[in-house]
Structure formats: structure tokens, C-alpha cells
Amino acid sequence: MGVLKGRTALVTGGSRGIGRAIAERLARDGARVAVHYGRDAAAAETVVAGIRAEGGEAFAVRAELGVPGDAEALWAAYAADPLATEGVDILVNNAGAPHFGGIADTDEAAYDRVHALNAKAPFFVIRHGLARLRDGGRIVNVTGTPDIALPAILATIAAKGAVNALTVSLAAELAPRGITVNSVGPGITDTDLNAGWLADPGARAHAASRSVFGRIGGPEEVADVVAFLASPDSRWITGQHLRATGGLQLALL
């Protein structure tokens, strides 16, 4: 613990999966972590309790994302917590969920829902948080891998791609404040979100074969990449997309 001592991080979707691993890693590095959740208060409090048990600082923040007024509600909930600091040093936009379906199976309502959560929410969480984000801060967007074809979640990939594009231009806009903006694209990751289909031995073996390492990645491996981008060591990296995929794109060549 140490490289993030004295800094405050907000992790959206921090109660489960990759978001939980990110929150726990940033806390181990010394940050005070606001663990955002949408519905499952018990899961968020479990993360908070675990961080505190290891000597870290954390608190839970509730706000449903993907609905009108979500970003304002998130920051209002953050500010209302007695453990919140006035400024935030690290913002990790991790919250999201897929819509399963190709173009023929995605109507306008489904498209709007997936973009509200995966693209619009990060945009406005950043917008409404800029006054609180300290100069020299870090924004890390957990998105997707743009050069891998995933037609089964087409609308989701389009939404994640929008945030990748946002990352590049926002990095240029915020550079005068010393704020870096980067994105991380996980590959197939062993989380509760994927637990159902990964329970099938054949599907799991196929998923593992997609990585050049011949295995499925864990959420902590994505969290380690995010932690680097949140640290002082990443000060000369901005507007970049890092693929935390275990060489997924290499295995497809």
C-alpha cells in the first residue's frame, strides 16, 4: 500500500466482477475508494468491508446508471457520504452491461438502453465530475476491444466504441489540467457475469483457446492494468487504449 496514498478514487460498478477487483486493487495501493453500485447494496458493502478489514478506506455510493439524471444522482450520492473528500483524483468508468443480439435482434428500445448505460452514462459522469476531479487526476474507461468482431453483442460493442473515441478527444481537452484519460479493453474474463456460459466445459475450453496463453483471464489481471493507469507512473500516457485480453487478438490471426 502506498503509491495512491492520500488520493480518492470513484469506481462505477465497483461491487462485482472487474469493478470489484479494481476497487480492491486501488485500495491496496492506498486510495480511499468510493464503491459505486446500482442495486445490490449487500454486494457493495461486502467490498467495502473487505477493504476496511485490510486496513484500507472505502465507502459505498448508490446510483442507478442508464436512466435520466443518473450522473447528477451519482455525484450527489457521493457528496452526501461523510467519508467523501471534496476532490476526486481517480475516476474509473467501469459500470456496464451487454445486450445479447445481432443487428436483426436489436430494436430501438434495446439500442437506447444499452447506449444509455454503456456510452451516455460515462460521458455525463465525467462531465458532472470535472469540477470535483483534481488537476493531475486520472480517468480510466473500461470499454471493449475495438479490433475484435463480436456480432453477438453488436449494440454493446458500438457503445463501448463510442467511449473509446471519447477517450482520445477528451485526453486532448483535459491535458492542460494534467489529467490523463485512457481506456482498457478486457478480453474474456472469469467473472460472475460470464459464469453461466463458462460453466460448460466445452465453452470454457474454447474461450481459453482464444488467448495465446491458453487460459481465461481473471478480473484482477484487468484491475492491475487499471491500477497502473491510475498511478503516477502512467503520467506520460494519455488518449490510449490498452488491451487487457491475454493476446486475444493475436490468437485470432
UniProtKB/TrEMBL annotation:
Keywords: Oxidoreductase. Signal peptide: none annotated. InterPro entries: NAD(P)-bd_dom_sf, SDR_fam. SUPFAM superfamilies: NAD(P)-binding Rossmann-fold domains. The keyword Oxidoreductase applies. It comes from the Bacteria. This is SDR family oxidoreductase. It comes from Streptomyces goshikiensis.
